[in-house]
Amino acid sequence: SVSQIQNLFGALASAAPRTWGAMEMSIKASYTFGELPEIVSPTDSAAVLERRSTRSERKKTYLSRASLPQLPEQSYSTQLFVVGTVASSLFCDFLLFTIVIPIMPDVLRSVDPSRSSETFIGILFGSKALVGFISNPLVAGIPPKTSMLLGIALNAVSSVGFAFFNSYTFFLAARALSGVASAMLMGGGMTLIMLCHEDDDRAAAGGYAMTGLTAGALSGPFIGGLIYTASGHSQIAPFALVLVCLGINLMQVTALKPLVLSGPDSEQADTAATGNGAEGEDDEDDEPARVVTFGTLLSDSLVITAAVAMGLQWFIIGSLEAIAPSYLQERFGLGVFTASAVWSVTPVSHMLNNFGSAALSKRMPYWVLVIFGELATAGGMMCMWFSTLGDKAGPMQLALEIVGLFCIGVGMGYVVGAPLQGITSKLASARGYPDIGQLVAISNSGQQLGLIVGPMAGAPLYEVSESAYYVGTTAVFLVFCLANCRFAQLDKVAEVDRDAARRERRAAAAEARVDALPDKGVEAVLRTTARQIARSASLNKPKSTELL
User: Fold this and answer.
1) How far apart are the first and last CA of the chain?
2) What is the CA radius of gyration of the chain?
3) What sections of 100-143 are H helices per DSSP?
4) Over the range 268-279, which residues count as b (16 or more CB within 10 Å of their CB) and which as e?
5) Global pTM value
6) Which tens digit of pLDDT belongs to each residue from 221-233?
7) In the chain, N or C terminus with fewer CB closer than 10 Å?
8) 450 Cβ neighbours under 8 A, 6+ residues apart
């Protein structure tokens, strides 16, 4: 009878907790909607039930234990707005970075002739990268939105300094402030993108945001020279445009909704606050939040490899900025505007290939794209080396120079764009690093170090021997391609994470369906399972302990 089955059901429940595991397996076999959540025992205390409910909610927030802490689920329009805002921030930062290039030499000759030599100008331009390199680890712990707001404010102060000061010392201080701002904007912006997107979308989103950086680097010298000349050599006019762009970007960042992170720290706080330390529950999910220092990150060879890959690409850009324009003018007899137009092939190629790498990052492994970009850079350096051979400078040599600059832009797009952003995200997930901002800061430090070392080491090496510069850098890139093959191991970890994420999603969907069942339906499920157990007991006639 039904009462006898219910009595058997209660006896099994009180005999041992494993009964419920057997019943869960039986229910799973009877229903087709996938994995079910834990079955609640009538003997469980209220604290245990509350704790299980809290864990169920966490499962809906986290796709897997290996994934990074993420913001609450964002709509596509919100994610698009975040990417656009970060791209706008990087555009403003690199617009200020490059708009001074055609302006400052002429301004210094007017206001401070004693410090208008190439040495002083080089120190002024290089101070931004040096200060940014020092600032990256210091600003890594600032929340992303706060970091972006502070970066915009510092860039505004820097722009006002360039517009109204008339001293080399003040110009140097303004340039140093923009270095701190660059560290804050790059670190905060890329961290925000990583947190607002799931693992599979982070690389493409980061690549699209990097197009703002390229656009600023491309348009800065042209816009600065044009406005400076059209305004009658006005020092204020170019930086007034920068201030307008910063004002628009400030409104974008302010419009971002207040985003509250939920991660391991909040999980631990919830457990402590609710006192869910009830007996009979595993405490493996309540481990304290992992604290990772910069020393730990710097001891990870894959983190260093990613930072060096970033630094090598910017080393090439930093050295060629000091070499290519003057070389084009002297060897091919090009004017200033024509030489600038030829040099612009690199940033244009960089921008186009940012989009290409972002699209391919969803279809190909990141490490393959990085190796392709480094091979393209090596091929570009060889083309530029071939253009220097021989005494005659004809159309063929100029064509080789242009092809080389284009290939270097391809390498920039396929290394510093989406692929390396994706590798940074995978590193954080695979290693279990809780703060991805620290990884972004180390990657940015590699970029700043490349911009520092490029003009200081690459340009002097070129003056000593053109062949040593081109052949040496090509050999370094070819050797480093082998080191980047180590990133292939991250794909195996990512596959495991994806499988875990699929299981968690199926479990969450099954839980939602069970929650939607009426109480009578759940009772029917339990009664059916009890009948199956009773029928098995009547056929096999085991003892109750043997049945358990």
Assistant:
1) 22
2) 30
3) 104-111, 118-135
4) eebbeeeebeee
5) 0.66
6) 878 888 888 888 8
7) N
8) 310, 311, 312, 313, 314, 315, 316, 317, 318
